[in-house]
């Protein structure tokens, strides 16, 4: 998972789905059926997407509760709540201070959980250590997209215009400056020697708003997770110039070239996981270890992954926490290279 400042050869950042769930009482073995384990959860669960509708967090949260319901892995009602603002910063501040003892409130997140805590501008005083990582579930990739009628038909032509005059090309994303979408947006040009601080970037509260800006001619291109672009590609509203994976993806994205195919030696992998409030009990964490592992192995979940062009990447609570600790170091190096570190 090395990170090279000059080449951006490998950037492994992962998006986390955070889910905060109801107070779990002592749970023995998975088959014990003890009354304490059977009592959790006993009321509806809210899963928050810290953004507007239409982006990766929103889609992840909705897919998660859909499959947990369809498979009866969670019997209680689960709903999604959208709380946009500052690329997750506004939500996390409220969550950490008000909901730290409420395991019936979950939330979805991604690399911004780390980025927002480590960047200089618009940062969050809170990070993964202020919540309880429960599981990494998926792996996604970044993409650069333009409107269908854009003059740009390949990533190099976009980069050439940015090189010629960065003030005349506007990039956009569904999260704040210094965030994941920002890093995806500037990655290709940065790799070819453009000072990232000179690149124009507009931030919106969610991928849906960023795409609306693109289609409304308020941006020349957007950087976001490729899984949120499938429906717009199918409808013919956009063109995807490049994906940040090592190899071409399948399904609807078969014809999308990788950055490497375009001569840009860079990769950006997005993780997504599930997190809960800080003060979860060991028994509650154990419940989610069991439940989310079962989810990751279920055929219904695998079909949902395929439909969204996500790849499965399951880590339990302990492994996910260790992974986030490693990623914190990678993100710090990345932000330092951009002069955006705290």
Automatic annotation (TrEMBL):
Keyword check for Signal: yes
Pfam families assigned: TctC (PF03401)
PROSITE patterns hit by this protein: PROKAR_LIPOPROTEIN
InterPro entries in the record: BUG, Bug_dom1
UniProt cross-references to Gene3D superfamilies, sorted A to Z: Bordetella uptake gene, domain 1 (3.40.190.150), Periplasmic binding protein-like II (3.40.190.10)
SUPFAM superfamilies referenced in this protein's UniProt entry, alphabetically: Periplasmic binding protein-like II
Position of the signal peptide: 1-25
Entry keywords, A to Z: Signal
Similarity remark: Belongs to the UPF0065 (bug) family.
Stated name of the protein: Tricarboxylic transport TctC
